[in-house]
Amino acid sequence: MSPRSDLTRLSLSEARTLLRERRLAPRELVEAHIEAMAALRRLNAFITETPERALQMAAESEERLRRGEARPLEGLPIAVKDLFCTAGVRTTAASRILENFVPPYESTVTRKLWEAGAVLLGKTNLDEFAMGSANVTSHFGPVTNPWTLPADPRPRVPGGSSGGSAAAVAAGLCLGATGTDTGGSIRQPASFCGIVGLKPTYGRCSRFGIVAFASSLDQAGPMARSVADCALLLEAMAGFDPHDSTSGDVPVEPWSQRLEEGVRGLRIGLPREYRVAGMPEEIETLWLRGARWLEEQGAEVREISLPHTRYALPTYYIIAPAEASSNLARYDGMRFGLRVEGKDLTDTYERTRGEGFGKEVRRRILIGTYALSAGYYDAYYLKALKVRRRIREDFEAAFGEVDAILTPTAPSPAFRQGEKEDDPVAMYLNDVFTVPASLAGLPAISVPAGLSREELPLGLQVIGRAWDETTVLRVARALEQAAGGPWIPHLLREAS
Hints:
By secondary structure, this protein is of the alpha/beta class. The chain is 38% helix and 12% strand.
């Protein structure tokens, strides 16, 4: 393994220390990652690479470090999910309809990251408009999971929708990345790729400048190779934003400084309803092992009930498509994005949307429009909102008994590309453990905790009270320490 590739295996926290101690230059770190991106383009993790911009930002960081004016993320190269608007850099949402869209403004989350000193390596691939659980619906092609088994010719999916970010972090193409989570799109790909992914409380990070999928669910969050790295990134990303009416006016806490407080005295709940039919034995075993790790570190583990859990998936797949059908109405070829001329205005609308949107996006628009239509609004959408409130109340009752909840992240390890693409219901079931926390707007994190029989990563999920990322991160850190690692994908083991 070359010294350059050593740099791409650093944690964000380790690289930060080396930069501040002047034992490593920002340009050297950035160049190592640019080389890694070029060497592993076959993963298709990036839609747009920005090497020139990265080197320019690295030079600015070098000057700041020289002057002793380092910001929290000074000189650290990261990737951004191509759902965040970046001024002057193409933002596609992985869709043909936005293939050539260059925003004139910056999302709040990415602006905060650049103000903290982070360096942009490029924009990562995703499921089109964040709609998917496998990163196979992108207009720019599927992403390959770097954990794909050498003896198996069919590539594994990285999960979705933030699969490009997850694959890039796991493969050492960046030190960290942004993701968005609507029903599990940070946590599930983190589990599939053996990294850490945090969905903060709804409203913790601004949605301004993020291409919308479902506005009452979408939440930005960090993805990295350690819990400490996610905490550092969240400190830069979070905060109140007057441009976002759903942004929470709550203080940003020093999460990275509280990770080692441990779990002694904390009460951890195991929801009995998460033992779903057909769940593989190895997932159940991992879950119980995680509970035992927390008990060994002084936590009290008890069984709890979240009785409306079984309604979470159908509730989500009414609310999310309904909001998507409304949000995606703006893509009509009139103001920005793709325009396909027709014989009249209506024909132009139809051609633009028919050719601009992929199959999964069209499916969800149709489902959502149906749920909102006259005669069905009360029967479907309004009823789903009532069930959502019940799910939130379940969590509120549970948090009267416990401080955090432990569950599996996903019902399986990463599957092969093409295995579930013809069965949308089977694909949607990948979100069975992540959707409830999303509907309730709660913080939740996925931590790599073991390997399957096929040597593929498996994750555990920690769910906390609203605005209590501190406890979520503490429990996640305890699991991380017990699980060990390192979680090195098969692709990188071959290279070394």
